[in-house]
Design goal:
16 strands, 16 helices, eight-stranded mixed sheet, homodimer, 436 residues, globular, 39% helix, four-stranded parallel sheet, alpha/beta
Chain lengths: 436, 436
């Protein structure tokens, strides 16, 4: 049979089923989808392909799903470090955003983020930022998959005047992207402390009608929880639950402050958590009890957060940090084993976005969002267990190739849809402006 | 003036004084030492050099000092993950060591570690393992600086029969290395739970006579502290203090379990702590209160621990983890700022080893142990603050060049004293044997 692409790999780690590593297997891609996964010897007999890739030292995996980004903020990487969250936001990030954020900032910042993400094996990102139409446009242009957040916040910004205006603009974008093959949308009310009940209730109704996810920062810091309790006697999750937000459409990001009741609530409701360990550590926001959440049956995905608080969009680094910190917080070295960390970075992210029928594992029928990691470097030798090696020893520079929906976006470390030198020049210009 | 080497760099971060970044400066090296550090424009007028390096996108730093390794264990990278410390040691690591450790294991494992360390910018390592004479020989052969631990443990191994035998062999090696330009020695009693008072008292006396450091795992886990208290009513540090171990020669590794009295004791005594955050997290050993130790005035250095529990020897990754976890543990986002993390990985390590007159900063008169990090990658753009960028965003693959005592051991990512292909073949052989 004639197909588009045949990838012969030393190892294939499909993620589903969990903990499986197939040796000397091949992935067969046609029409942007995985149509077969079988031993290389058989594949060579059964398929002829336009593109044949031999990856003798590589593991093939599903692409990483970065479930929480503010892509354009990559232009603010390292602009203000070693500061607590509110100081960082109020005295550095928000003033810079007020001065500089606009269509061209979002365009160039998103391009930088996409380039970094593709070079690190991320094939889908769940974004929250102003000018989401620009984020969608750039993701589409460069061929990466994205769930674009329709941001809502009580106060006016350069993008919208008030919560109705945010929602209206978001809905227009949702309509426009409705049949896009790569881009989906989610409502993205910023946080409990920046969005009041009125707009949240509107979002709840619209999300039900349109079957859209709701992406929100929740319980990021103890300060957030304490202030809310001081103001209205409720922890933010209690307030959100009172207006029916906590359900399978709800994607709660950070969640460092959780009591047992809240964990039970999320588990029972089928709501999702996005864990951003490096951002939480860097801003001293707290330790999310991830092993406990997973044990309760909650779907936990992973995100890098924006590069202004991380300072990278490195999902391989992030899943390693999640595995390491998860053990220490649980006081149990068997917690968050390598295979779980890998699920959090792939299929769990797909589930949170409602895309698990489409992406998140190398499964026949799913879209061909695939990455290859070269394990032949000295730093990943000797090699006793590929999954463990990827999680605990590999670096993102070992990601050699990336396909999204069967299209090759990274080829032997070279981006195919972005010109790095042009991008660097634009980024240097923004650096000048933001430093001035 | 004619000199050996002149390096013109975009940035020089000397580490001492702290937080300083010099722009368009040059490092002048002659006879293996730093003889000048001055603006490039002036350097070009004052010096002629045999080797001239232009590093227009790079930061020059002192090489990293990895203050706790078991280099040869790199052959066991990933052999047993996601296990608690005692299970991991007793059921996996110790049986494998019993079966395989010998001169050739230590030779090849140390070579692998040295290759990985040099490629990641480490120019000095503080080791603890069997057959330290082989570790010393390989470090010397490949030109990397090392402090080789003279291991002592109560039970017999293939290297020595009993504690007297360990000490005797160690002393012989110390004598042999006495005038070596790159290799020093330290006593390395393994841990309080594996070395009894008798040998510790001998070591104390000998260390005083010979002015040698003492390198020891201490308070790694709560289990260690609780068992000791159950057995003799004393926490290990109390016991060690009773036999006068806690003084400026003492290098205590891990130290996750510390009360205020113990922190005061270490601060008052001028003893050193080596923090190994990734190993502590991975083995769920506990959270070392590093910000508190630093605030008390203790010299805290950094180590990766062995690659069997990390699973890499990546000091740039380790110092990032130290900065991130240090903030979260202190509940203070301003704790362990980037410049402090960089000190922990360089000058503080040099201090712990008693080598701070020789290495640890780019200071005129010190040995030329220097590394270059290329910050032009997309992942380190834009660039507002080089120190912050190195700590929070750079990857070890951006280390392009490494000099130890003025000799270039990594040249544009290529090792000059190790052949990678030969090494890979040997490592593959060990993988076969250890897997069998």
């Amino acid at each position: 049979m004639q197909v588009d692409t045949l990838i012969h790999a030393r190892w294939i780690i499909p993620v589903e089923p969990e903990s499986v590593t197939l040796e000397h297997h091949s992935l067969v891609i046609d029409g942007g989808r995985i149509i077969d996964l079988l031993p290389t010897e058989t594949a060579k007999q059964q398929y002829q392909a336009t593109n044949i890739e031999n990856l003798p030292d590589h593991a093939l995996l599903p692409g990483f799903v970065n479930c929480h980004t503010h892509a354009a903020m990559t232009l603010m990487r390292g602009v203000a470090d070693d500061l607590p969250l509110m100081d960082w936001l109020q005295n550095h990030i928000w003033p810079l955003e007020g001065k500089w954020v606009g269509e061209s900032f979002v365009k160039d910042g998103t391009d930088l983020a996409i380039a970094e993400m593709l070079r690190g094996g991320t094939t889908c990102f769940n974004d929250m930022y102003f000018f989401p139409e620009i984020t969608a446009q750039q993701a589409s242009h460069h061929g990466i998959r994205a769930c674009v957040g329709l941001i809502v916040i009580d106060f006016p910004t350069v993008w919208a005047q008030n919560s109705d205006d945010y929602i209206e603009k978001g809905l227009a974008l949702h309509d426009q992207l409705r049949h896009h093959p790569l881009i989906t949308t989610a409502f993205a009310p910023h946080a409990p402390y920046t969005v009041s009940d009125g707009p949240l209730q509107k979002i709840r109704t619209l999300a039900d009608e349109l079957e859209m996810p709701i992406h929100m920062h929740v319980h990021e810091t103890r300060f957030e929880v304490d202030s809310a309790q001081g103001q209205n006697g409720k922890r933010p999750i209690e307030r959100l639950n009172d207006i029916d937000m906590i359900d399978p459409s709800f994607i709660a990001v950070h969640m460092t402050q959780l009591n047992d009741d809240e964990i039970s609530l999320f588990a029972g409701a089928g709501a999702h958590i996005v864990h951003c360990p490096e951002s939480n550590l860097k801003l001293a926001s707290g330790f999310a009890p991830i092993a406990q959440c997973l044990a309760a049956g909650i779907n936990v995905a992973l995100g890098t957060d924006g590069a202004a608080s991380n300072n990278d969009l490195d999902m391989l680094g992030e899943l390693r940090t999640a595995a390491l910190i998860g053990k220490a917080v649980a006081n149990d070295a068997t917690a968050i084993p390598a295979s779980t960390a890998l699920k959090m970075a792939t299929i769990n992210g797909a589930k949170a976005l409602g895309l698990d029928n489409e992406i998140g594992s190398l499964t026949i029928g799913k879209a061909a969002d695939v990455i290859a990691i070269d394990l032949s470097d000295l730093e990943t030798q000797p090699l006793y267990c590929p999954i463990s090696q990827i999680v605990y020893a590999a670096n993102r520079q070992q990601v050699t190739d990336v396909w999204v929906a069967g299209k090759r976006l990274l080829k032997q470390r070279q981006l195919t849809t972005l010109d790095i030198e042009t991008l660097k020049t634009k980024v240097a210009d923004w650096q000048q402006r933001l430093s001035s």
